[in-house]
Amino acid sequence: MRHDRKLAFLHPWLTFLYWVAITVGVGFSLSGLLSNLPMLPSALQGRVAWAKDHSSEWTPVAILAAVLVDRIRKVVPQPWLWTTVHKLLTSFQRDIFQAELSRGDPMDLHRLTLFKRLRFRCWVCKWPWSGWLVPIERSGHTTQSTAAVFRAPDEAKRAEGVAGNTWRASVVIFRENLPDVSSAAAPPQDVADYARQTWTTPELVARRRPSARSYVGIPLDVNGKPWGVVVLDSTDAACKRSDADLRAYALLQAVLGKILERE
Asked: Which residues constitute the domain of residue 149?
């Protein structure tokens, strides 16, 4: 998953530093008023006098520090948010794939992965500014490490994968009855067919050997704007597309979209 989610532990510390900076700034600002208090303890008089003499220097520094830390704090994800998103994805995984899990299938054979679109990815990759869908969170407790990143550029025809083309279409899309390419013995024609149906390349399919034989792509809006997508992948050849499933997808869109307004 994305590295910024792993930085969530910094959020409480940044909040602490923010309030320290605010307190220091207010302290320096009020030092002139405090120095005139007749009942000020003698132990504090020297410190208040020093703060008064240096308030013009340190008050702006404290205010600038508070603004800077607050900006960083807004970028670093809040721990509760991604914990909630993970629990929500896992809850929907258990509901949508209830029959498959009931028959004893491991959870990692039927997954939900949340992708966020970024305008910029990194300096070393190809087309870093073209727009990318990057994995943020995944249901379950296994297969949490993934390198699945897909292009989602403004030039829509160059979108990659089920994720990229869900972003492009902005509607729920289904890919099913895909050939089994999980084995290195899979025929080249099956590999090529899998790549064609999932908007990838035979080279990528041959390298990753995906076990999924069906996908559902669900677009996700936040605050009325496209934010990313959720992709369901399953080793079952048939997509989950009953009326109950479609209602579940709509509910997932609505709930996730509301939670991610706090990102």
From this structure: 79-177+213-262
